[in-house]
Amino acid sequence: MSTFAAVFAPNGKAWRGTEVDLGPVDAIDDVTELMIDFAAERGSDLSLLLVEADDEWFAVVRAEETGDPRVYLSDARVVHDHPLAGVLSEAGGLGAPQPAESAGARPNPVPTGDGDLLTDLGVTEDELRSLSTGGGVLPSDVLAVVAERAGFSDILDGMRL
């Protein structure tokens, strides 16, 4: 399983980011601690974690110094197959559909979570859900749109090369 994860935090008008190895994550606290520490080192109280796995699904986690993390998952059905997705889903209080009887392609994603978590950064809930369910749109493409709107696409592109 191939997973890409990176955390981003604004520093004034500029964003900073770094690729992170989430490894085996057992609890959301492991993830949010990393995110909040990264943001604090840059003088920010906001951080975003972008996760993309196997060209199959993506997640966005928003953490701030106070409050619970906000989570958006592009396809709730992956929580049964990907432990990280399960941890993120649980943290966001998201439900998961029953696992399908048969394995195989999943043509119709079931997005779940706080679709509003990026509105102040230029991606509305409707747009995020539309991108999540759009045919032929890869998770990496959606994350590229998020990064472009928020203002850190150059950093994300540099990591993906």
Any chance you could write out the topology, listing elements then pairs?
Elements: E1 3-11, E2 14-19, H1 28-41, E3 46-53, E4 57-64, E5 70-73, H2 83-91, E6 112-113, H3 125-133, H4 139-150, H5 153-160
Detailed description of the structure:
It is a single chain. It is built from 5 helices and 6 strands, in the order ββαβββαβααα. With about 160 residues, it is α+β, with helices and mostly antiparallel strands. It has one domain. The chain has a 6-stranded antiparallel beta sheet with strand order 2-1-3-4-5-6, with helices on both faces. α4 packs antiparallel against α5. The mean pLDDT is about 90.
Strand order of the largest sheet: 2-1-3-4-5-6
Number of H/I helices = 5
Number of separate structural domains: 1
Mean pLDDT across the residues is 89
Summary, kept brief:
The chain has 161 residues and is α+β, with helices and mostly antiparallel strands. The protein is built from 5 helices and 6 strands.
For this entry, give a set of tags.
alpha+beta, 23% strand, globular
